[in-house]
Amino acid sequence: MQIDIEFFWDPGSTNTYFAWKLLPAIAARHDARIVPRAFNLGYVFRHHNYAVMAEPPPKIENRKRDLARWAEKYALPFRFPGVFPIKTSVALRGAIAMRRWDRERDFINAVLEAYWERDDHSIAEIGGLKPLAASLGVDPEAFAEAAESDEMRQALIDETQDALDRGVFGAPSMLLGNELFWGKDRMDFVEDELERNSI
Amino acid sequence: MQIDIEFFWDPGSTNTYFAWKLLPAIAARHDARIVPRAFNLGYVFRHHNYAVMAEPPPKIENRKRDLARWAEKYALPFRFPGVFPIKTSVALRGAIAMRRWDRERDFINAVLEAYWERDDHSIAEIGGLKPLAASLGVDPEAFAEAAESDEMRQALIDETQDALDRGVFGAPSMLLGNELFWGKDRMDFVEDELERNSI
Fold it and tell me: Do residue A169 and residue B59 have CB atoms under 8 angstroms apart?
């Protein structure tokens, strides 16, 4: 039986980029399927009344060093974007819209690579997403119309709210059945869970 | 050349327990030496004006699940203590005092096992630490006198401040030369660094 890994993502999350890049090899080893779920962190932060806490400079410095270590260890051309944070709701709506063309995962990959590898923050606007759609063989105008539709706006709210209702609280999160894993540094636990399920 | 792993610890930190239990095998594989550094989190939080932020219940729930997964994966008899948080400065002073008898690492191990495996929160008081000292062959009265001395009170402040001055911001942290690693989930990066240094 093929196992689904629900992957809750937001393109504004650095760790979403890393987890997304590490997950396919793990899924392939266990013949699992990655099922993306849009998780609008802006909506979530408002929902939880999150405040971003000021952090001591050494902690911020260490986070940068840590990200560089991850990029090196896994040979990923990551670089921290010059413009951060950005608005992510258009890209999330675009991903949901891409289900119509069955290109959601390719689109997510294109969005994450644009922002986290090429420092391209145009993914915050529909104008920056249209060329990505075109590169996947999807008509950019039809894509833009779908991504900007009221239907997709509601779909993003519903999908994020559904995740919250199911206990997801951050991105990246991976849900296998009822087992929730949070963060790029829990990939080995995801793999353990897949192994347990394949017995 | 033997490499030193400076290990910044506080017994009130759950992740200190896990990192402490995982580190010896890693150090042994690379003939590295673990050098404990007392890091008084209470002092640090005051220093940084940290506020503990209210977290959404699903996040708290997931943390518990995550800790249970770590305990299972590494076969550790961890259980979350009934009394938490506790005062940790006496145990930290006791550890520094134990250098006089060359039993610091054994003492740290005894303290962490008492609190994180046996739910024994008496380690918050000198009375709970004396039996641990005795079990290590150290005269409990001489130990208590040292641990409660003004000299040790100052030593704990100095050691914690020195760590802050060197860029340590949390526990557990591991410092190898100038490379700082934070958290129980960076043990593989510590091992990578040891490998790099042994070439």
Answer: yes
A175 touches chain B (CB under 8 A): no
Question: Cα–Cα distance between B8 and B66 in angstroms, integer?
Answer: 22
ipTM of this complex prediction, to 2 decimal places? 0.91
Distance CA A29, CA B150 (A): 58
- Let me know if A196 is exposed, middle or buried by CB neighbors in 10 A (0-12, 13-18, 19+): exposed
pLDDT of residue A50: 67
SS3 A197: helix
SS (H, E, C) B56-102: CHHHHHHHHHHHHHHHHHCCCCCCCCCCCCCCCHHHHHHHHHHHHHC
User: Using one digit for the tens of pLDDT, what is the confidence trace for A80-132?
Assistant: 999 999 999 999 999 999 999 999 999 999 999 999 999 999 999 999 999 99
Chain B residues with CB under 8 Å of A186 CB are: 66, 185
Q: Which domains does chain A have, with CATH numbers?
A: 4-198 (3.40.30.10)
Residue B39, pLDDT > 80, answer yes
Q: What is the mean pLDDT of chain B?
A: 95
Residues 6 or more apart whose CB falls under 8 angstroms from that of A62 comprise: B167, B169, B180, B182
B-chain residue closest to A63, CA distance? B182
Chain B residue numbers touching A74 (CB-CB < 8 A): none
Taking an 8 Å cut-off on Cβ atoms, the answer to whether B169 and A73 are in contact is: no
Which pLDDT score, from 0 to 100, does residue A122 have? 97
Minimal Cα distance from A66: which residue of B? B181
Cβ distance of A189 and B56 shorter than 8 Å: no
Is A176 in contact with A194 (CB distance < 8 Å)? Answer: yes
Give the separation between CA B141 and CA B145, rounded to whole angstroms: 6
CA distance B160 to B40: 6
The band of B56, judged by pLDDT with boundaries at 50, 70 and 90, is confident
The model's pLDDT over A24-57, given as tens digits with 9 standing for 90+, comes to: 999 999 999 999 999 999 999 887 766 666 788 9
Give the total residue count for chain B: 199
